[in-house]
Specification:
The chain has about 260 residues and is an alpha/beta fold. The protein has helices at about 35-40, 60-65, 65-75, 80-85, 150-155, 170, 180-185, 195-205, 225-235, and strands at about 1-10, 15-20, 25, 50-55, 75-80, 95-100, 105-110, 110-115, 125-130, 135-140, 160-165, 210-215, 240-245, 255. It has nine helices and 14 strands. Helix 8 runs parallel beside helix 9 (about 225-235).
């Protein structure tokens, strides 16, 4: 059994914290150090005991605070070579950057961080499956296509964090220019509410306990739309559903069969 929470999720910053008996890690660090500390405090946590940050990809909303955290607190930053080599100058020097190949599994305390490739417009993006003593968290955000690899890696998760970025109608009728709309809709872009619901339907099983929808667009989605799509899939199932917000942390969720 371990637990996790989202410190915020969206285009203005992303970070998730995972805590077990012997480990504490972040997945992504898209907030300034001050903002990260504030959000951890709001969630009832702190930087004390933090052992690592695992990056999904190099986009600023996922890495903005990684450099300062690494340099000021000596926290190692894990990422694929493509991610680490393509970090912006804003991140700065990472004295403890640790590369791994997509598909590798990295042990941290009693956690196993198993990476897998996803389709996104970044150099070498990954998401993660987090395991500990038989408990499994599937974490999949910032990808435009749920490949067979993605479905296989997430299968059997007791908790799922899944992107539900946009509503196609809101995107089509919104203010974004056609080229940006195409990027978002592409197989290297983001997951729509409909994409999320299809993936969730595929991953549904009896011991799924928690589903958290993340990375909702503030311009091209509404929390109630994403929630409704997921509720249709979960109808009659005991899994709890939560929609993460940009401006505040979620509660902590326990992961276990």
């Amino acid at each position: 059994m371990f637990r996790f929470g989202l410190l915020g999720s969206g285009s203005s910053g992303n970070a998730a914290v995972v805590v077990s008996g012997k480990a504490k890690i972040l997945i992504d660090c898209g907030f300034s150090l001050r903002q990260l500390q504030r959000r951890l405090e709001q969630a009832g946590e702190s930087l004390e005991g933090l052992q690592a940050v695992f990056l999904t990809h190099e986009h600023t909303d996922h890495v903005a605070g990684a450099g300062v955290l690494c340099r000021k607190h000596g926290i190692p930053i894990y990422g694929t070579p493509g991610t680490l080599q393509n970090l912006s100058q804003q991140v700065g020097n990472l004295p403890r950057a640790i590369p791994f190949e997509a598909g590798d599994a990295v042990p941290i305390g009693d956690l196993e961080m198993a990476s897998f490739s996803v389709a996104h417009d970044a150099a070498d993006p990954v998401s993660y499956v987090v395991r500990s003593n038989g408990a499994k968290l599937g974490f999949a955000t910032d990808f435009g296509h749920a490949s067979e690899l993605v479905r296989n890696r997430l299968a059997g998760s007791h908790a799922l964090v899944i992107e539900s970025n946009y509503c196609p109608d809101l995107l089509r009728n919104g203010a974004y220019p056609p080229q940006i709309q195409q990027r978002i809709r592409s197989r290297q872009g983001h997951m729509s509410n409909q994409d999320m619901s299809k993936l969730l339907h595929h991953l549904l099983h009896d011991t799924l306990r928690t589903v958290v929808l993340v990375h909702l667009s503030e311009n091209n989605n509404r929390p109630e739309l994403a929630q409704s799509m997921a509720e249709q899939v979960l109808q009659g199932h005991s899994a709890k559903l939560y929609v993460a917000a940009q401006d505040a942390p979620t509660p902590f969720f326990e992961v276990g069969p």
